[in-house]
Structures are given as structure tokens and as C-alpha cells.
Amino acid sequence: xxxxxxxxxxxxxxxxxxxxxxxxxxxxxxxxxxxxxxxxxxxxxxxxxxxxxxxxxxxxxxxxxxxxxxxxxxxxxxxxxxxxxxxxxxxxxxxxxxxxxxxxxxxxxxxxxxxxxxxxxxxxxxxxxxxxxxxxxxxxxxxxxxxxxxxxxxxxxxxxxxxxxxxxxxxxxxxxxxxxxxxxxxxxxxxxxxxxxxxxxxxxxxxxxxxxxxxxxxxxxxxxxxxxxxxxxxxxxxxxxxxxxxxxxxxxxxxxxxxxxxxxxxxxxxxxxxxxxxxxxxxxxxxxxxxxxxxxxxxxxxxxxxxxxxxxxxxxxxxxxxxxxxxxxxxxxxxxxxxxxxxxxxxxxxxxxxxxxxx
Length: 359
Description:
Layout: E1 5-11, H1 17-34, E2 37-43, E3 57-61, E4 66-70, E5 93-97, H2 108-117, E6 121-126, H3 140-148, E7 151-154, H4 157-162, E8 169-170, E9 192-197, H5 210-227, E10 232-237, H6 242-249, E11 255-256, H7 264-269, E12 273-276, H8 279-287, E13 292-296, E14 310-313, H9 318-330, H10 332-358
Parallel strand pairs: 1-2, 1-5, 5-6, 6-7, 7-8, 9-10, 9-12, 10-11, 12-13, 13-14
Antiparallel strand pairs: 3-4
Helix pairs in contact: 1-8, 1-10, 2-3
């Protein structure tokens, strides 16, 4: 009997590093329970087309005739789960984690696999991108998977209420568990602050509204004007399109970015406080023990409360923000301790729920 299990986890690669922070936390949690396993991913990157009935056609010309040659669909060669693997019963556990994308159309093949092989599944810290979520409007394929799931935990109030009939438990997003204990921070005072940059002119799902962007620019410029000589600041970009815009808006401040999501552990670890609109930037910082202030611009931002972050809404009065910031700075040591205690508690709660299922 084989010992190494194959675990299929829905995520994205090279699209939104926040999804990869969730993947880090999910793997750390599962490894603490079942030891070593093979991680197979279902890559929801919208760059990929998973269905084989969506072909790319190559128009070829030779001396005798014109012809069309059907090629493999985009994503066919991606090193992740794909439609051709649907008949293969090799997955021992399927995991949905974090992101609102768990219910999207790109997940259909994932759900088809569960339905065909009756694969055990868990939903860990899933969330919603909307203020309303009606499970009864989901395709039957999706509803069956939710009904048969071994465990459902949710990261926000909307999703918790929508899945109450399925015994959903509220627990923060697994990104909170991404950082190893050995890299957690001990913070006594604020010296360096990380500002998460997000742009309006960027790809779908990696941008904020123009209104939110204008608010961010105004807030950051006022912050740098009032505190620029007291603290050191750096910007953090999660998406490549943001780099040139950040450099134009703030040419005097260092801007950090990496194509590799794993590098963000080192990027965020240098800060004593993090501010910004990226949910999982706040989450990864929290996993390191670094307090955050989330700038809430859509329904997903509610997730940050699970990371122990304070939240302000886009359009809030500047005095409200600076009052919150002052309190945060004054109590940074206590918040650092509280965050790490909260992380330990969340890890224990996940383990308590998962242990009887995985055993």
C-alpha cells in the first residue's frame, strides 16, 4: 500500500501571488497533519484554457493547399492538473482554499473530477467576492461537492452565512499560516513601514477602481509628507504592471517586487507595520507577526479582520486613518505578540477540525 498521498489544491501560479501565499499556508497545515505528500495543483490562471474543445487554430500554407491545423489548447502543457487526467483516479484529497475563485467557471474540471471519482474534499478558509452568495444558484455539480465535503471553513461573514446549512466553521484564510515559525518577527517599535501599491491601469482581478487608486495616492503622499523623516518606507508591488506606475508616482521611494511568491516572505519580513489594499499582503505580513492596516475597497477586504488587521474604507476621513495609525504605532509590541498568539490558535483550530477527517 502506498504511503505518499497525492493532494490536489486549487490555486493560481504567476497571476496573483496572494493565491500562492494561500497555497503556502495550506501546505504547511496539511504537512503538519499527514507528513510528506505530493502537491498537485489545479492552476486557475486565466491565461490558461482548460477545456480541450477550445482550440487554437494555426493557419498553414504550402504549395499545394491551404489547411487548418488544430493545436492543443492554451495551458495543455502547463505542469498542472488538466482535462486529460479526468479518467485517472490518482488523487487522495482535493482542497479548495482561500480565494473566491473556488466557485468560478474555471473550476468546472476540478468539480467534474470530484464527482466522477468521489474524491474526499475539504474547503479551507474560502471566501466570497460579493456581498451576497446564493449556493442554490450554483450548478448541481458544484452543489454536490459542497454537500459531500468533509469540512468547510470560511473566512468572512457572507460565506459563513451562505454555507451555514453545510456546517461551515469560521476560520481565517490559510494565508495566515504561510510563514514558518522560524521566520516570525519580534517587534518592539516601528522603524520601517511597508506600503502596498495597487494600480487602476492593470489586468482584471489585479487592479483597483480609479476612485480607490486616487484615494491611495492621496493617503500615501500625505503619509510620506508627515512621517517620511520619522520612519523608513518602501513600496511593495504584487503584479508586474504596477512597477512602472509606482516608480512614476513615488520616484523617491524604493519599490519591491518579485515574480516568485516565495520571495515575499523576505520582502515583508523587513517591515514593522504594513498598510495597503492587498488582502494577502496584509495576510502574509500577519503570518510573520507584522500588524497591518487594510484599506478596504471591495467585499474581499473583510478577510483582513481574520488577520487581526484594522480596516479603513476607501474614502474615509484622513484624520480617522492617522488616528488609527498613531494608535497602531504606540501599541505595536502588544499587537505583534497578539498576532502570533492568534496565529497559533488558528493553526490549532484547523488541526483539531482536520485531524479526524484526515486520519
